[in-house]
Write the structure tokens for this entry.
Amino acid sequence: MISFADEIQQGIPTVLPAAKAWDPAVNHAPKRKEILSPEEKKLALRNALRYFPKAQHAELAPEFAQELSTYGRIYMYRFMPEHPIYARPISEYPGKSQQARAIMLMIQNNLDHRVAQHPHELITYGGNGAVFQNWVQYRLVMKYLSEMTDEQTLVMYSGHPLGLFPSHTNAPRVVVTNGMVIPNYSKPDDWERFNALGVSQYGQMTAGSYMYIGPQGIVHGTTITVLNALRRIAKNREDIKGKIFVTAGLGGMSGAQPKAGNIAGVISITAEVNPKAVHTRHSQGWVDEVYDNLEALCERVKKAQAVHEVVSLAYLGNVVDIWERFDAEGIHIDLGSDQTSLHNPWAGGYYPAGLSFNQANDLMAADPEKFKEFVQDSLRRHAAAVNKHTAKGTYFFDYGNAFLLEASRAGADVMATNHIDFKYPSYVQDILGPMCFDFGFGPFRWVCASGDPKDLEKTDAIACAVLEEMMKNSPEEIQQQMADNIQWIKGAQQNKLVVGSQARILYADAEGRMLIAAAFNEAIARGEIGPVILGRDHHDVSGTDSPYRETSNIYDGSRFTADMAIQNVIGDSFRGATWVSIHNGGGVGWGEVINGGFGMLLDGSTQAQRNLTSMLHWDVNNGIARRNWARNENATFAIKRAMEAEPLLKVTLPNLVDDQLLEDLF
Ligand SMILES: NC(=O)c1ccc[n+]([C@@H]2O[C@H](COP(=O)([O-])OP(=O)(O)OC[C@H]3O[C@@H](n4cnc5c(N)ncnc54)[C@H](O)[C@@H]3O)[C@@H](O)[C@H]2O)c1
């Protein structure tokens, strides 16, 4: 059997490997929509075959044609490697560049069977968040990374490695673009077509940028959101007791909601129509109890409410039924949201009320138009039931899943009186935006490249010590965020959230990120820990322009622009990032968002110290400066602090107009 290192260095094997059987034990991506014309199908095959010498075409062409008609895509399953894919210690990767080896580690983590949603289709999360389009791209990229030097940069076009280009030591080793298209060609069907042709892919956020860290990121983000949402309706922890949180979805990201509800200390009720998803989260201990009967559920909720129990309940059924039944029963919902996958409403992201799970699955394939009518009808019912509760005092927020957007498109009663805004805020408008992003707090993360859990423990302790020291002098405005994150990092080891690489996430502001990273770099230089890879979720202060999510609390009319995300990735790339990425789509759908991220290897060197200071400072303050220019008060506070700390930073500040002055002008 070929060794791991040899198989990596081999790239595309010269002798064709045997065809592989489709493995039913693995969670596979659904069959994609048939969208190509016969001529376009030929083009897709021509595109796929260009990776191989002519002599192999006769054997591969019918196989790829078969994949295209069976799965809607050409994954080149035959070329799946022999080696198991998981994040190995960095020393086990072959190569001349330590930075390139760090990237190999991160790529393998994104495709690890324990981490990835559809590993054989190279999908990490979100149903379509791809690392590569096919297995030959994986093989080629790993080969390039194993042979490149620190004087080269690998250029990635939507999973396809364009090649290695000469650059310089402090340039990024890899530059990734995913799904970038001419804006007029950014409709969902355009993605289907380009992806089927093999010329573009949906990178989601951390899938196509090799920065996914498993469920930990989601648990942390959801806890921060639920906790801060509760702070809007309850003054202190005492007030939180007995509060009821109703939501939907126990899937990839949404499955963290009951766990977050328990950490925050409420009674959570999460509806989920898919029995498999309910079983997964229940067996993992992420949700405490399961009900498939509304009467029993209502009784259980009343009992929990009477004694202020902290408990998470799953309802196997449609969320619309809960909203309607709780209204009829007079059960008061304190906090409400929804995390069905409405970024993908017509292909299984949202199951309409009135149809069973199986009926819905059948209808969406047999009669897509009819299915669409059911979805839109259900959304109107869903919103009407939510409206009844909010009239009684429920605090409802959109969880960045395009619920309000799709409900409005369905004609549901969700528009504000000005007919422009929605009735309800998004979680970023009310919670993450003003409370976190505007101050610079966002999902900073790191991976210990040695793969040693002891390194993670040491970095946790280092990060905690840095935050505690910072908190002593932090202004009142950010004390709460500091305290939340200190509490999180203290409980991190105990919560055992590591799946795959030895990774950690916490929300930190620019100063926190720079100080923590510098402390890591010093510990590496002293030989106390191995190298550390820094990164973040794209769902952050500066990385993402998304008008209904990350930048939904931008009110100067610029939320449909994407200058911030583009500037961010350009700025990161010349300030020392080890790799950078920029994507169309991610979270809310193709064409709806531009988002970018970075990875940075800390090796204990003085160059790493210079890079981390320069790049992290920009990576956060870019977004704060823009949020400040949009007149976000907390961002102006934060950027003024940043300017006091760094004399080279000079940001344009907005002047506020007295609205009275404008009153009679138009
Ligand atoms: N958690 C986060 O941090 C976060 C942040 C921003 C946005 N989101 C958004 O949340 C959505 C969910 O993400 P995911 O990864 O969990 O997706 P997912 O598809 O894995 O899970 C959604 C679940 O909702 C269930 N569902 C659909 N319709 C339902 C209905 N009517 N009643 C009950 N259950 C229903 C589905 O069966 C599915 O299991 C996405 O649109 C995502 O972009 C999540």
About this structure: The chain is about 45% helix and 10% strand. Residues 400 and 549 are 5 Å apart (CA to CA). The first strand starts at residue 123 and ends at 125. The radius of gyration is 25 Å.
